[in-house]
TrEMBL record:
Protein's name in the database: F-box protein At4g22280
Pfam families: F-box, LRR_At1g61320_AtMIF1
Keywords: Membrane, Transmembrane, Transmembrane helix
Xref: PROSITE patterns: FBOX
SUPFAM superfamilies: F-box domain, L domain-like
């Protein structure tokens, strides 16, 4: 007697089933329409619609027309429900001469359904964005990857509920950035990644009282024009990330709530880097945690403010003359610092300078933890300086590169010094080794593991023959030989 299987999933309410379908790729959601009459049109009511380029790869012209009609019907279905997310991603444009898809119309259809999130990654995106996109009151998240095309911001902009705006590989002209941001009255998360500001008039102007997170990351090589000023006025900003060549000028005001900042800046020969970079760091005076990466001492410590709130400082540099002296001078500006992380490898040709006699107050009263990466002989004097003057130090962590047999002898002086440090310190002293394993050794060892598993599998199966044994043994011997030789 056949067992009757109860279909419990189909008994769920339609809105729950549609929510489940929203997690599936669109083609999988459509396939559920054959389950039963109840499921036939459920896919048309899902709240998340995502299309990727692979959906049209390999389709004939007839199938492409069918796909276009399907998308049109899906977005304009009579029993429309509001959309949570509309995503269209592909490197190749969807509206080129071959396909002739009306992407702009699709975006408008999603906007008319009260979409909350739009994510577009298209070539020539700037040419197909409808003006309606910039006046949509339902939009909460907007992500645009324009792949080098200009984002044409209309004069009429009103995104009253937009909280997250992410723009990647886009171009801007005139005052379009200021016009866009100033009309997003509840914006909290803003990111410009590898955008081109070459055609801006004079400045990148970001003023937003609601902004909490700001990311400005630019290609340090591709965009050569730095003849503009970065202006930021964000009184509620909590997180700030900035990566770029130092530009003409910086005006950072009213950052009283700043908790964390990641700054990665590189000098330029065409402007006064010291003055501009100093203005940038001056604007971060209220930050509590600062991560700084530079290629030179490109800002002047004697012009820096006192960072009263700074308790965590991470510094990463490629090395320059007098880096130790510069660091100690900076520590004078951070009287309440508790955690210090350093990473600057030894660079040939750099000259050392004597450390200042005057000890920063943070070493005497507040600094509890120091972590140093790339520990080599060039850093020994600085570690000794810290151990002599850090009166409340609790943890000292030193990270060293792991040594091969041939390197062990040359590293003996460093090992001896670390032992002396451990004996003379009153804090917890930890030395961590980075084990540097060559790529080919890892690959050879992986092949040994795979071949061994195959060997055991065939050994217990009925298909194991002498030829199989010969092939596997030869493979194992070759991998072992390669591993031992490299």
């Amino acid at each position: 007697m056949a067992m009757c299987v109860e279909d419990r999933i189909s008994s769920f309410p339609d809105h729950i089933l549609c929510h489940i379908l929203s997690f599936l790729p669109i083609e999988e959601a459509v396939r559920t329409s054959i389950i039963s009459t109840k499921w036939r049109y459920l896919f048309a009511s899902i709240s998340t619609i995502k299309f990727d380029g692979y959906l049209i790869s390999g389709l004939t012209e007839r199938n492409l027309d069918s796909f276009k009609n399907f998308v049109d019907r899906l977005l304009k279905f009579p029993d429309q429900v509001s959309l949570d997310c509309f995503r269209l991603n592909d490197i190749i444009s969807w509206n080129d001469e071959d396909h002739n898809f009306d992407v702009s119309d699709w975006i408008c259809a999603a906007l008319c359904r009260g979409v909350k999130e739009i994510d577009l990654d298209l070539e020539n995106l700037g040419d197909i964005l409808p003006a309606l996109l910039f006046t949509c009151h339902s939009l909460v998240t907007l992500k645009l990857v324009a792949v080098g095309s200009e984002i044409k911001v209309p004069s009429d902009v009103c995104l009253g509920n937009l909280k997250t705006l992410q723009l990647i590989n886009s171009e801007f002209v005139g005052d379009s950035i200021h016009r866009l941001i100033s009309n997003c009255h509840v914006l909290e998360d803003l990111a410009f990644i590898n955008c081109d500001f070459e055609y801006l008039r004079e400045e990148v102007n970001i003023q937003s009282p609601s902004l909490k997170r700001l990311v400005l990351v630019f290609d340090l090589v591709e965009f050569e024009n730095i003849d503009y000023v970065v202006v930021i006025n964000a009184p509620n900003l909590v997180y700030f990330q900035y990566t770029d060549t130092v530009v003409k000028g910086y005006t950072l005001t009213n950052m009283k709530c700043l908790e964390k900042a990641h700054i990665n800046i590189w000098e330029s020969d065409s402007i006064d880097c010291e003055t501009s970079a100093t203005h940038l760091i001056q604007g971060l005076r209220n930050v509590r945690s600062l991560s700084l990466t530079t290629d030179e001492a490109i800002f002047l410590t004697n012009r820096l403010p006192i960072f009263h709130n700074l308790i965590e400082f991470e510094y990463d540099s490629h090395g320059f003359d007098g880096i130790e002296t510069w660091l100690v001078e900076f520590l004078h500006c951070a009287p309440n610092l508790e955690t210090l992380t350093l990473n600057f490898p030894d660079v040939a040709g750099t000259r050392r300078k004597a450390l200042p006699i005057e000890v920063p107050s943070c070493l005497s009263f507040h600094l509890k933890e120091i972590e140093i990466s790339c520990f080599e002989t060039h850093i020994i004097e600085m570690v000794s300086y810290f151990l002599d003057n850090a009166m409340v130090l609790e943890n000292l962590i030193i990270k060293m590169k792991g040594m091969t047999v041939t390197e062990n002898e040359s590293h003996q002086p460093i090992i001896a010094v670390t032992k002396e440090f451990k004996e003379m310190s009153n804090c917890d002293f930890v030395v961590l080794f980075y084990i540097m394993v060559r790529t080919y050794q890892c690959l050879a060892w992986f092949c040994i593991d795979v071949l061994f598993v195959i060997y055991i599998s065939l050994l217990i199966s009925d298909t194991f023959t002498n030829r199989n044994r010969l092939y596997l043994m030869v493979g194992l011997y070759v991998c072992v030989y390669v591993y031992l030789c490299i």
